[in-house]
Amino acid sequence: MKIVNMHEAKTNLSRLVAAAEQGEGFIIARAGKPLVKVEAIAPENPRRLGFLAGQGSIPDDFDRLGAEEITEAFLR
User: Exposed/middle/buried for 16, CB within 10 Å: 0-12, 13-18, 19+?
Assistant: First the structure.
């Protein structure tokens, strides 16, 4: 993680915050002593895979559902 002094942080705050938004957090130091760690805040509602797990079921013959009707439609 990048360490910047107080003056550099004040001078380049916009650039540093933009980098933090991209995952490149930084630490602000005074007289070489780390004081503050700056990181992006995680989104409040991240997209989650599997959020409906267990809420439904897929029949065993799913890949054959409607096969007869589809075949008949093509043979007409």
Answer: buried
